[in-house]
Amino acid sequence: MSSKENIMPLSEKRENESFKHTNKPLSKPGLKETKISNTKLHIQEEKSTPTGTVRKQVSVEEEEDVLVYIPEKPRRSPSPHSMESLLEYPANKINIHHRKEANLLRFEPPSTDKTSTQSRIEALQKELNKAIKEKEALASKLQAARKELKQKTQQAQEIDHKMEQVTQIKARIASNKQEIVESQSVYDELMDILENANEKGLEFDKTLSGYNDQVNELLNELSLTNYRIQEFKESHCKAE
């Protein structure tokens, strides 16, 4: 699409618009309907560059913004009586409507200098290359971050596994301590029984030694009695 096909003279455009408005019925009796339009200018241009084809479009658009009603005939000058009544009318109830004028300075077409266009294209190309480099740098950073995250995840899993092992070992240690406490209590009971048995054994030894002494005394008395009986027998035999 060429730039000439999309560009229409502003005066011709306004005549077409005014023709459209004259065919419309008036919305208010005694008033003429007018519309103020904002014009937008777009330019299209194609140029081949080493990196590709750059296209710039030129077109003219109009947007309807304001609807204004203007009397078909000028009103008469107010009479003195109406001026007096207007002066007596409350000021807070008086509304003054101002017509908006189109700012034609903003409709000035932009410059189509080839040098500025080429410099703009080069600037855009530099920005594009910079954006591509930044994207590649971000992609490499993202890949490194994913790799680091994977390593951190593996380390976290290993730490969790070690923590589970430590928890199991702590549970075993607590169980062994409980068994040691129970075994210590049993050992203490056995030691008490053994001490009691030793005490009873000592008492039994004392009693047994007492019995042995008594038996020895009785044996001595028996030997003495046998000796006396033997002497008595010998003396009786000599007497016969």
From TrEMBL:
Residues 114-200 form a coiled coil. Residues 1-55 are annotated as: Disordered. It comes from the Eukaryota. Residues 11-20 have a biased composition (Basic and acidic residues). Keywords: Coiled coil. This is Uncharacterized protein. It comes from Mucor lusitanicus CBS 277.49.
